[in-house]
Design goal:
The chain has helices spanning 16-27, 40-52, 67-81, 104-132, 143-147, 153-173, 191-194, 198-206, 216-227, and strands at 7-11, 31-36, 57-61, 86-89, 135-140, 178-185, 238-241. By secondary structure, it is an alpha/beta fold. It binds NADP nicotinamide-adenine-dinucleotide phosphate (NAP). NADP nicotinamide-adenine-dinucleotide phosphate is lined by residues 11-12, 14-18, 35-39, 42, 63-65, 90-93, 113, 117, 140, 142, 185, 187-188, 190-193.
Length: 248
Protein backbone atom coordinates (compact mmCIF):
# COMPACT_ATOMS: atom_id res chain seq x y z
CA UNK A 1 0.00 0.00 0.00
CA UNK A 2 1.16 3.52 -0.79
CA UNK A 3 0.23 6.32 1.61
CA UNK A 4 -2.05 8.78 -0.18
CA UNK A 5 -0.47 12.03 -1.36
CA UNK A 6 2.87 10.46 -2.20
CA UNK A 7 4.51 11.59 -5.45
CA UNK A 8 6.15 9.12 -7.81
CA UNK A 9 8.41 9.90 -10.77
CA UNK A 10 8.42 7.19 -13.42
CA UNK A 11 11.10 7.66 -16.07
CA UNK A 12 10.18 6.23 -19.45
CA UNK A 13 6.60 6.31 -18.18
CA UNK A 14 5.16 7.10 -21.60
CA UNK A 15 4.72 3.59 -22.87
CA UNK A 16 5.50 -0.09 -22.31
CA UNK A 17 6.43 -1.22 -18.83
CA UNK A 18 6.77 2.38 -17.59
CA UNK A 19 3.16 3.11 -18.53
CA UNK A 20 1.96 0.03 -16.60
CA UNK A 21 4.03 1.16 -13.58
CA UNK A 22 2.62 4.70 -13.75
CA UNK A 23 -0.96 3.42 -13.87
CA UNK A 24 -0.39 0.84 -11.10
CA UNK A 25 1.17 3.40 -8.73
CA UNK A 26 -1.70 5.77 -9.53
CA UNK A 27 -4.18 3.04 -8.60
CA UNK A 28 -2.38 2.89 -5.24
CA UNK A 29 -3.08 6.61 -4.82
CA UNK A 30 0.28 8.17 -5.73
CA UNK A 31 0.40 11.31 -7.87
CA UNK A 32 2.50 10.58 -10.94
CA UNK A 33 5.17 12.51 -12.82
CA UNK A 34 5.73 10.84 -16.18
CA UNK A 35 9.13 11.42 -17.75
CA UNK A 36 9.69 10.49 -21.39
CA UNK A 37 12.06 11.38 -24.21
CA UNK A 38 10.11 12.15 -27.40
CA UNK A 39 6.81 10.31 -27.92
CA UNK A 40 4.29 13.00 -26.83
CA UNK A 41 1.25 11.05 -27.99
CA UNK A 42 2.10 7.94 -25.95
CA UNK A 43 2.90 10.04 -22.87
CA UNK A 44 -0.41 11.90 -23.17
CA UNK A 45 -2.25 8.56 -23.33
CA UNK A 46 -0.48 7.45 -20.15
CA UNK A 47 -1.36 10.74 -18.44
CA UNK A 48 -5.02 10.21 -19.37
CA UNK A 49 -4.97 6.67 -17.91
CA UNK A 50 -3.34 7.99 -14.74
CA UNK A 51 -5.91 10.80 -14.42
CA UNK A 52 -8.77 8.29 -14.73
CA UNK A 53 -7.69 6.86 -11.36
CA UNK A 54 -8.35 10.25 -9.73
CA UNK A 55 -4.77 11.28 -8.90
CA UNK A 56 -2.72 14.17 -10.32
CA UNK A 57 -0.38 13.60 -13.24
CA UNK A 58 2.33 15.69 -14.88
CA UNK A 59 4.27 15.21 -18.13
CA UNK A 60 7.99 15.97 -18.30
CA UNK A 61 9.89 15.64 -21.56
CA UNK A 62 13.66 15.22 -21.65
CA UNK A 63 16.62 12.89 -21.88
CA UNK A 64 17.44 11.13 -18.59
CA UNK A 65 21.10 10.96 -19.65
CA UNK A 66 21.45 14.76 -19.95
CA UNK A 67 22.11 16.41 -16.61
CA UNK A 68 20.45 19.68 -17.75
CA UNK A 69 17.28 17.81 -18.73
CA UNK A 70 17.27 15.90 -15.43
CA UNK A 71 17.64 19.13 -13.43
CA UNK A 72 14.73 20.60 -15.40
CA UNK A 73 12.67 17.44 -14.83
CA UNK A 74 13.04 17.52 -11.04
CA UNK A 75 12.66 21.31 -10.85
CA UNK A 76 9.39 20.86 -12.75
CA UNK A 77 8.25 18.05 -10.47
CA UNK A 78 9.13 20.13 -7.41
CA UNK A 79 7.16 23.09 -8.77
CA UNK A 80 4.07 21.02 -9.61
CA UNK A 81 3.99 18.56 -6.72
CA UNK A 82 6.38 19.99 -4.10
CA UNK A 83 7.97 16.61 -3.29
CA UNK A 84 9.25 13.29 -4.64
CA UNK A 85 8.75 10.18 -2.54
CA UNK A 86 9.14 7.42 -5.10
CA UNK A 87 11.51 7.21 -8.06
CA UNK A 88 11.24 4.45 -10.64
CA UNK A 89 14.25 4.44 -12.96
CA UNK A 90 12.62 2.66 -15.87
CA UNK A 91 13.75 4.57 -19.00
CA UNK A 92 15.83 2.22 -21.09
CA UNK A 93 16.99 1.50 -24.58
CA UNK A 94 18.78 -1.13 -26.68
CA UNK A 95 21.26 -0.97 -29.58
CA UNK A 96 21.93 -4.67 -30.16
CA UNK A 97 24.95 -5.96 -32.03
CA UNK A 98 27.42 -8.79 -31.73
CA UNK A 99 30.46 -7.71 -29.74
CA UNK A 100 32.85 -7.98 -32.67
CA UNK A 101 30.72 -5.50 -34.61
CA UNK A 102 29.55 -3.28 -31.78
CA UNK A 103 30.29 0.37 -32.44
CA UNK A 104 31.46 2.68 -29.71
CA UNK A 105 28.37 4.85 -30.17
CA UNK A 106 26.10 1.80 -29.67
CA UNK A 107 27.88 0.98 -26.44
CA UNK A 108 27.86 4.60 -25.22
CA UNK A 109 24.21 5.29 -26.01
CA UNK A 110 22.93 2.27 -24.09
CA UNK A 111 25.21 2.90 -21.10
CA UNK A 112 24.26 6.59 -21.05
CA UNK A 113 20.51 6.05 -21.08
CA UNK A 114 20.25 2.99 -18.88
CA UNK A 115 23.03 3.50 -16.34
CA UNK A 116 23.95 7.18 -16.35
CA UNK A 117 20.25 8.08 -16.51
CA UNK A 118 19.66 6.00 -13.38
CA UNK A 119 22.58 7.73 -11.65
CA UNK A 120 21.46 11.27 -12.59
CA UNK A 121 17.84 10.76 -11.53
CA UNK A 122 18.83 9.05 -8.26
CA UNK A 123 21.26 11.85 -7.43
CA UNK A 124 18.51 14.38 -8.10
CA UNK A 125 16.09 12.89 -5.54
CA UNK A 126 18.30 11.60 -2.74
CA UNK A 127 18.84 14.80 -0.80
CA UNK A 128 15.13 15.54 -0.41
CA UNK A 129 14.41 11.89 0.47
CA UNK A 130 17.11 12.01 3.16
CA UNK A 131 15.53 15.18 4.54
CA UNK A 132 12.07 13.54 4.55
CA UNK A 133 13.59 10.37 6.08
CA UNK A 134 11.47 8.35 3.63
CA UNK A 135 11.98 7.26 0.06
CA UNK A 136 11.59 4.39 -2.36
CA UNK A 137 13.82 3.93 -5.39
CA UNK A 138 13.14 1.08 -7.80
CA UNK A 139 15.56 0.54 -10.67
CA UNK A 140 14.51 -1.51 -13.66
CA UNK A 141 17.29 -3.93 -14.54
CA UNK A 142 16.78 -7.06 -16.70
CA UNK A 143 17.40 -10.81 -16.63
CA UNK A 144 19.98 -9.98 -19.30
CA UNK A 145 21.96 -8.20 -16.58
CA UNK A 146 21.91 -11.44 -14.56
CA UNK A 147 22.71 -14.04 -17.19
CA UNK A 148 23.91 -12.11 -20.27
CA UNK A 149 22.65 -12.38 -23.82
CA UNK A 150 24.47 -12.75 -27.12
CA UNK A 151 24.18 -9.52 -29.08
CA UNK A 152 23.52 -7.41 -25.98
CA UNK A 153 26.91 -6.90 -24.30
CA UNK A 154 26.20 -3.17 -24.00
CA UNK A 155 22.69 -3.69 -22.60
CA UNK A 156 23.82 -6.49 -20.25
CA UNK A 157 26.64 -4.29 -18.93
CA UNK A 158 24.20 -1.44 -18.27
CA UNK A 159 21.67 -3.70 -16.53
CA UNK A 160 24.30 -5.52 -14.45
CA UNK A 161 25.70 -2.08 -13.59
CA UNK A 162 22.28 -1.06 -12.30
CA UNK A 163 22.35 -3.99 -9.87
CA UNK A 164 25.72 -2.95 -8.41
CA UNK A 165 24.56 0.66 -8.29
CA UNK A 166 21.37 -0.38 -6.49
CA UNK A 167 23.24 -2.32 -3.79
CA UNK A 168 25.74 0.49 -3.21
CA UNK A 169 23.16 3.27 -2.90
CA UNK A 170 20.98 0.99 -0.76
CA UNK A 171 23.86 0.67 1.72
CA UNK A 172 24.45 4.44 1.76
CA UNK A 173 20.88 5.40 2.63
CA UNK A 174 19.55 2.37 4.52
CA UNK A 175 19.49 4.23 7.83
CA UNK A 176 17.55 7.15 6.37
CA UNK A 177 14.28 5.34 5.72
CA UNK A 178 15.08 4.99 2.02
CA UNK A 179 15.06 1.65 0.22
CA UNK A 180 16.70 1.03 -3.14
CA UNK A 181 15.83 -2.12 -5.03
CA UNK A 182 16.01 -3.47 -8.55
CA UNK A 183 13.47 -5.41 -10.58
CA UNK A 184 14.78 -7.67 -13.33
CA UNK A 185 12.04 -8.44 -15.84
CA UNK A 186 12.30 -11.34 -18.24
CA UNK A 187 10.91 -10.88 -21.73
CA UNK A 188 7.87 -8.62 -21.84
CA UNK A 189 6.24 -7.71 -25.15
CA UNK A 190 6.66 -3.97 -25.71
CA UNK A 191 8.09 -1.86 -28.52
CA UNK A 192 11.54 -2.70 -27.10
CA UNK A 193 11.11 -6.41 -27.84
CA UNK A 194 8.41 -6.21 -30.55
CA UNK A 195 10.97 -6.23 -33.36
CA UNK A 196 12.37 -9.68 -32.50
CA UNK A 197 11.81 -12.30 -35.22
CA UNK A 198 9.18 -14.96 -34.37
CA UNK A 199 11.84 -17.71 -34.38
CA UNK A 200 13.84 -15.82 -31.72
CA UNK A 201 10.69 -15.27 -29.66
CA UNK A 202 9.98 -19.02 -29.77
CA UNK A 203 13.56 -19.75 -28.68
CA UNK A 204 13.18 -17.37 -25.73
CA UNK A 205 9.83 -18.85 -24.69
CA UNK A 206 11.42 -22.30 -24.65
CA UNK A 207 13.78 -21.05 -21.91
CA UNK A 208 10.95 -19.76 -19.70
CA UNK A 209 9.47 -22.34 -17.31
CA UNK A 210 6.04 -20.67 -17.51
CA UNK A 211 6.26 -20.93 -21.32
CA UNK A 212 5.14 -17.38 -22.04
CA UNK A 213 6.29 -13.76 -22.05
CA UNK A 214 5.50 -11.52 -19.11
CA UNK A 215 2.93 -8.71 -19.11
CA UNK A 216 3.91 -5.12 -18.26
CA UNK A 217 1.32 -5.24 -15.45
CA UNK A 218 3.13 -8.20 -13.86
CA UNK A 219 6.29 -6.08 -13.58
CA UNK A 220 4.29 -3.09 -12.34
CA UNK A 221 2.78 -5.19 -9.53
CA UNK A 222 6.23 -5.90 -8.08
CA UNK A 223 7.30 -2.26 -8.43
CA UNK A 224 4.15 -1.16 -6.57
CA UNK A 225 4.98 -3.58 -3.75
CA UNK A 226 8.58 -2.34 -3.45
CA UNK A 227 7.37 1.28 -3.58
CA UNK A 228 4.87 0.73 -0.79
CA UNK A 229 4.90 1.30 2.95
CA UNK A 230 5.10 -2.44 3.66
CA UNK A 231 8.40 -3.04 1.86
CA UNK A 232 10.48 -0.95 4.26
CA UNK A 233 12.68 -3.86 5.37
CA UNK A 234 13.66 -4.88 1.83
CA UNK A 235 16.63 -3.07 0.34
CA UNK A 236 19.47 -3.76 -2.07
CA UNK A 237 17.57 -6.67 -3.61
CA UNK A 238 17.05 -7.63 -7.22
CA UNK A 239 13.71 -9.29 -7.82
CA UNK A 240 13.42 -11.25 -11.06
CA UNK A 241 9.98 -11.13 -12.68
CA UNK A 242 10.76 -13.63 -15.38
CA UNK A 243 8.48 -16.66 -15.29
CA UNK A 244 11.22 -18.65 -13.55
CA UNK A 245 13.87 -18.07 -16.23
CA UNK A 246 16.68 -17.27 -13.80
CA UNK A 247 15.84 -19.25 -10.65
CA UNK A 248 18.62 -19.01 -8.07
P1 LIG B 1 9.88 0.80 -24.38
O1 LIG B 1 8.53 0.26 -24.67
O2 LIG B 1 10.87 0.96 -25.48
O3 LIG B 1 9.70 2.22 -23.61
C1 LIG B 1 10.85 2.93 -23.21
C2 LIG B 1 10.45 4.19 -22.49
O4 LIG B 1 11.66 4.84 -22.07
C3 LIG B 1 9.72 5.19 -23.38
O5 LIG B 1 8.77 5.88 -22.60
C4 LIG B 1 10.84 6.15 -23.82
O6 LIG B 1 10.38 7.47 -24.10
C5 LIG B 1 11.70 6.17 -22.57
N1 LIG B 1 13.08 6.53 -22.86
C6 LIG B 1 13.98 5.86 -23.62
N2 LIG B 1 15.16 6.52 -23.63
C7 LIG B 1 14.98 7.62 -22.85
C8 LIG B 1 15.82 8.70 -22.48
N3 LIG B 1 17.09 8.78 -22.91
N4 LIG B 1 15.31 9.67 -21.67
C9 LIG B 1 14.03 9.60 -21.23
N5 LIG B 1 13.20 8.61 -21.55
C10 LIG B 1 13.67 7.63 -22.35
O7 LIG B 1 10.64 -0.10 -23.29
P2 LIG B 1 10.05 -1.17 -22.24
O8 LIG B 1 10.10 -2.50 -22.86
O9 LIG B 1 8.81 -0.68 -21.62
O10 LIG B 1 11.24 -1.15 -21.16
C11 LIG B 1 11.17 -0.39 -19.96
C12 LIG B 1 12.35 -0.79 -19.09
O11 LIG B 1 12.27 -2.19 -18.81
C13 LIG B 1 13.71 -0.56 -19.74
O12 LIG B 1 14.64 -0.14 -18.78
C14 LIG B 1 14.06 -1.93 -20.27
O13 LIG B 1 15.44 -2.08 -20.42
C15 LIG B 1 13.49 -2.80 -19.17
N6 LIG B 1 13.25 -4.18 -19.56
C16 LIG B 1 12.38 -4.45 -20.56
C17 LIG B 1 12.17 -5.78 -20.90
C18 LIG B 1 11.24 -6.18 -21.99
O14 LIG B 1 11.21 -7.37 -22.32
N7 LIG B 1 10.46 -5.29 -22.56
C19 LIG B 1 12.85 -6.81 -20.22
C20 LIG B 1 13.72 -6.47 -19.19
C21 LIG B 1 13.91 -5.14 -18.87
P3 LIG B 1 9.57 7.80 -25.49
O15 LIG B 1 8.25 7.09 -25.35
O16 LIG B 1 9.43 9.26 -25.50
O17 LIG B 1 10.43 7.24 -26.59
Amino acid sequence: MIESGRVAVVTGGGRGIGRAIAVRLAQEGANIAISYRSNDEAAEETAALVSETGVESGLFKGDVAESGDVSALFAGVQEKFGRVDILVNNAGTTRDNLMMRMKEEEFDEVLRTNLKGTYLCTRAVLRSMVRARWGRIVNISSVVGLVGNAGQANYAASKAGIIGFTKSVAREVAQRGITVNAVAPGYVETELTGGLPEAVKDQIKAQVPTGRFGEPEEVAEVVAFLAGEGAGYITGQTLAVDGGMTMQ
